[in-house]
Amino acid sequence: MSFKSRAILILMILLGAGFVTAEEQAALQGVINGRVVNASSDDSPLFNGEVSLQTYSKMTLSNTKTAKSYNGGHFSFKGLKIAKDMVYIVSVNYHGVGYFSDPIVLNPKVPSHSVTLPVYELTDDNAKLLVVNHHMIISPAEKGIQVEEIMVVRNSSPFTYKGKNGLALKLSLPVGAYDVRTGGEVGEKKITITGDSVLVYKPVTPQGLQVVYSYELKTSGSVFTLTRPIDYTTEKLDVFLKIPEIRVKSDQLKAEKSFTADNIKYLHLSGKKLAPGDPLKIRIENLPGGGIDFFKIGALSMIFLIIIMIVLYIIYQKRKKISGSSNKDILSEKETLIKDIALLDDEYAKGNLNEEEYRSVRENKKKRLLGITHRINKIR
What we know:
Radius of gyration: 22 Å
Shape: globular
Strand order of the largest sheet: 14-17-11-10-19-22-21
Low-confidence stretches: 1-20, 290-327
Largest sheet: 7 strands, mixed
CATH topology of the largest domain: Immunoglobulin-like
Helix content: 10-25%
Strand content: 35-45%
Distance between the termini: 35 Å
Order of helices and strands: HHEEEEEEEEEEEEEEEEEEEEEEEHHH
Oligomer: single chain
Number of strands: 23
CATH architecture of the largest domain: Sandwich
CATH class of the largest domain: Mainly Beta
């Protein structure tokens, strides 16, 4: 789904675009047709596979239907309700891995929808793992700095990497990292924290896997160097720092133009085509004497992602309904922006967006993301 299509979908959900009266909706029935193909085998059809259709009404899973794919890998779900608060997700479990369609909203003007759902064979070769985009957000913390890492990893070959003994990703932590927390779509049961690594036990598909974790580092004196290796080939790394009055430099990254979001100034470093094994070093200078102790001045910073926008949450987590409280709405908006930026990068990489549009939209979303991060810190 392109960035523009996703935006239209969100507007349909929020505004009920194109919907008619309740009485007219009751008389309408929708249809979702589709095809399951094996993308590891030249899109050959997947016969006799069980296809599930999950129905979400007002943010809550209300029904699940199943069907078998028949000749040519085709499937069909008929008699579906059409309403502005109804969202449908098609899924297939293949070799123990779940594959999901984009969210589908049926419109009375277009009551049918067709979807092609690719599945993949498994591989234990990790040579094609690729970090499409990696963000690091560095903020002040009680005893030093907090680092939040957000990355989208995909297998660039037409196979799903399940890992050896289920271990798909091993992500390095800097020496001295503590209070390590995880979020995003992986889920607590699929991730383990060791003394020096974050271990991910969820398969990496060609469609990508988002990993989110944060940690704190103690600092002392006015200079601190954050050091950690690059674990996998990384197409793009962006580092954002929001510590007042600092200077920052890195031999591996170049300085980008600083910017302000929500009245907070951010320094920005970036790098492209980083190779696995390369040491990443970020030197932060002019820290407050004796390290940062923002707790004493009442600015406790705690960045931790809890939920993503309901549609994306449904795709990857499929958990119970999300609270409608204002604080959680802010958190949901933050994770929505994170995912949208990752999807935007993916669409640009596929050639679906021109560079001018891509840069403009991405910069705007990046500023909104950092502004929301600051608001979350103030709330907490």
